């Protein structure tokens, strides 16, 4: 009699434990990845720009104008960039002559998300600078420099950008001097405008 009651008690314990163990082995439902939306690899920037005029002797003011760039992303954090700008309007005072600066630069750019809608970038650029409207030779110079900036991403396609660069170029120290000079001047640039991703 005792053995039968012991077997019954043991069977009752097993009947309770087996379903509990089986329920612990049920696989949880998979959480489906949320769609992140389209990934845009190209972007264009257009905006207002400023450059100092350190390559021109006796300049009284920097110049303002239009600036833009095209960027092709090669991955999540790196891309190539083509940058252009045209500066022709005095900012604070009147410069002697009617100086203008045109720049065309290409290079590489690294970017990263900083905080929520803010992202930053750093880039290195090389190319050419043309200084016109004043007596300076050569009026074209090899140029290069580095820059940083920040984007406020309003949406997946649109952003507001602010940035700056320091660009070095080699022009003659004295106007009318013939030949190329090893004299290098550094001019700061600033820009603010709109970015469109596509």
Number of strands: 8
What is the architecture at the second tier of CATH?
Answer: Beta Barrel
Strand pairing plus helix content: what structural class? mainly beta
Averaging pLDDT over every residue, what do you get?
Answer: 85
Succession of helices and strands? HEEEEEEEE
Gross geometry: elongated
Helix-residue proportion: 10-25%
Strand order of the largest sheet: 1-2-3-4-5-6-7-8
Strand residues, percent: over 45%
Total helical elements: 1
CATH class: Mainly Beta
Q: What is the fold named in CATH at topology level?
A: Porin
Low-confidence stretches: none
Q: Would you kindly provide a written description of the structure presented here, covering whatever features stand out?
A:
Helix content is 12%, strand content 54%. It is mainly beta. It has a single domain, classed as Porin. Strands 1-2-3-4-5-6-7-8 form an eight-stranded antiparallel β-barrel. The model has no long low-confidence stretch (mean pLDDT 85).
Summarize the structure.
This protein is mainly β.
Write the layout of secondary structure elements.
Blueprint: H1 2-24, E1 42-51, E2 63-73, E3 78-90, E4 100-115, E5 118-132, E6 140-153, E7 158-170, E8 184-197
Antiparallel strand pairs: 1-2, 1-8, 2-3, 3-4, 4-5, 5-6, 6-7, 7-8
Can you give keywords for this protein?
1 helix; 198 residues; Porin; eight-stranded antiparallel barrel; mainly beta; 12% helix; elongated
């Amino acid at each position: 009699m005792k053995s039968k009651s012991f077997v019954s008690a043991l069977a009752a314990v097993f009947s309770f434990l087996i379903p509990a163990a089986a329920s612990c082995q049920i696989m949880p439902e998979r959480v489906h990845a949320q769609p992140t939306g389209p990934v845009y690899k190209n972007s264009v920037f257009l905006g207002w720009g400023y450059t100092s005029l350190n390559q021109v002797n006796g300049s009284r003011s920097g110049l303002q104008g239009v600036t833009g760039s095209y960027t092709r992303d090669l991955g999540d954090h790196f891309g190539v960039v083509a940058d252009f700008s045209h500066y022709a309007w005095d900012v604070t005072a009147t410069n002697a002559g009617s100086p203008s600066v045109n720049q065309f630069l290409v290079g590489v750019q690294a970017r990263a998300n900083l905080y929520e809608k803010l992202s930053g970038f750093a880039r290195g650029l090389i190319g050419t600078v043309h200084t016109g409207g004043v007596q300076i030779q050569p009026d074209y110079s090899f140029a290069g420099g580095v820059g940083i900036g920040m984007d406020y991403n309003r949406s997946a396609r649109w952003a507001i950008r602010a940035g700056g660069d320091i660009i070095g170029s080699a022009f003659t120290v004295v106007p009318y001097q013939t030949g190329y000079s090893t004299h290098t001047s550094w001019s700061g640039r600033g820009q603010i405008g709109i970015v469109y991703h596509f």
